[in-house]
Design brief:
alpha/beta; 7-stranded parallel sheet; Rossmann fold; 13% strand
Length: 264
């Protein structure tokens, strides 16, 4: 990627993976648009970037408010005149048994993680088709390839993203638009603290696995070369990534292993 000439729009850019992506793209000379709900945190990330007034723009965005997407896309396009890459990183996780989860909490999670990601992508897609270029990146999860306890709606949303974007990849090939699905393992972010419990309230705890996971900076350093190669699917993490390959060999074996693993 010729990053000094690229414009990259990152959702969920106020912390974690999104924040680390912002710093790495900025360091490599790309123009960056930062989106998330918390304006003060977006400003903090922008202030930590180099040459931020010229190279970094902020667009507040709530992925549950799809009616705002047309205006947000037009605003994003106006910042630097074009967009080359959309990184769909915004979302939330879950810590609840399926039997206890309210339908309201399930719908909220699907609205943000699936419909929000798809809706924003669809709104930007005609621009990519018209310019006959573009790179759509979706930060999915290992949960997009398998399932564990406490993650039923979260895994469902991630599985749905894989299905939708795998189909989209086939449809936009002729326009030189690339689609990359990224499956992180355990990364040191606040995603578990902000995860939804059965009644939709916040979990407010840091998982042991997350605390011991890969630092976001390391994750992003490993990710960017794979984006440059326009990989269709990327797996980055620790030993938990092996579960994807075990599933291919034996679903029975994987389920036996997962029943013994602490997933919180």
């Amino acid at each position: 990627m010729d990053l000094p000439k690229k414009v990259v729009w990152i959702t969920g850019a106020s912390s974690g993976i999104g924040e680390a992506l912002a710093y790495e793209f900025n360091k490599k000379g790309a123009k960056v648009i930062l989106s998330a709900r918390r304006i003060e945190e977006l400003q903090r990330v922008k202030d930590n970037c180099e040459n931020s007034e010229e190279m970094v723009k902020i667009i507040p965005l709530d992925l549950s408010e799809s009616e705002s997407f047309p205006d947000k896309v037009e605003e994003a396009k106006a910042q630097f005149g074009s967009i080359d890459m959309l990184i769909n990183n915004g979302g939330m996780s879950q810590r609840a048994f399926a039997v206890n989860s309210t339908m309201e909490s399930i719908r909220r999670l699907m609205e943000v993680n699936f419909f929000g990601t798809v809706g924003l992508t669809k709104e930007l897609l005609p621009t990519f088709i018209e310019q006959k270029s573009g790179h759509i990146v979706v930060i999915s999860s290992v949960m997009g390839k398998l399932g564990t306890r406490y993650r039923s709606a979260y895994a469902a949303a991630k599985h749905a993203l894989h299905g939708w974007f795998d189909c989209l990849r086939q449809e936009v090939y002729e326009y030189d638009i690339d689609v990359t699905l990224v499956c992180p393992g355990f990364i040191q972010t606040h995603i578990s603290e902000n995860a939804l419990t059965a009644d939709g309230s916040k979990y407010n705890k840091v998982d042991d696995a997350m605390e011991k996971g890969m630092p976001p900076k390391e994750f992003v350093r490993k990710l960017l070369p794979k984006l440059a190669k326009k990989k269709m699917e990327v797996y980055i993490g620790g030993r938990e990534i092996l579960a994807i390959y075990v599933r291919r060999l034996s679903l029975r074996l994987l389920n036996k292993i997962l029943r013994r693993v602490n997933v919180t």
